[in-house]
Amino acid sequence: MFKKLFAAFSAKPKIRADAPYGTEELNTVHNMLFADDAGQLFGDSPDVRVVQAIAQDPNEESRVRLLAAQWLRANGHMPPSPEVLGVVIEVPLDGSMDTLAAYADGRVRYINQTGRIAVFEGAPPDVAEQAKALVAMAIPAFIKAKQPKPAFAPGAGQLRFTFLSQDGNRVTEGFFSDIVRDELAKSVLEQGQRLLDLVVKQGNAQ
Q1: CB of 190 within 8 A of CB of 3?
Q2: What 8-state DSSP symbol labels residue 50?
Q3: Angle between helices 62-74 and 48-56 in degrees, nearest 10
Q4: Dmax of the chain from CA atoms?
Q5: What long-range pairs does 177-180 form, CB within 8 A, spacing at least 24?
Q6: Rounded CA gap, 185 and 174, in Å?
């Protein structure tokens, strides 16, 4: 995926960040990767203590913990001990986009530019461990990042890292040449490439 960034891209109109794909189904899957819309997950009047317990439970799914933290922030409660629990890497390609998401619990989601989706629920072990390594490597880059999630998808020839934190998501993005000059972002990219290689290998083995 990332090697394709060396190719030249023509300028294209901006695409909304919540609708980068050609179908509603794919856009819904894509939006869920960021775990930043709690919606009706916790009902109208949940017990704050229960939501806080979910947010800090290391045995709970990472995306559910992020949604719990999002609900807490939206309702005036700070999440206890905010953590970085995921990273989403987006690369626009040929009028579509490759999206790779990794979570601290070892889960992985990948949407290929063709629309094909790969889902890994904490297995196989090499994929899960690499997902965890990617998230761990993303923590220093998250601390440095300041930009909130933009309203538009990354532009042609760029890539975007969205760091998923219980304290709110942050973004680092730029052209490939910019990313490789940033040691923190470069390390995230390298770990992401390792994870993508494993994901593609699993797909080819099926």
Answers
A1: no
A2: H
A3: 140
A4: 52
A5: none
A6: 10
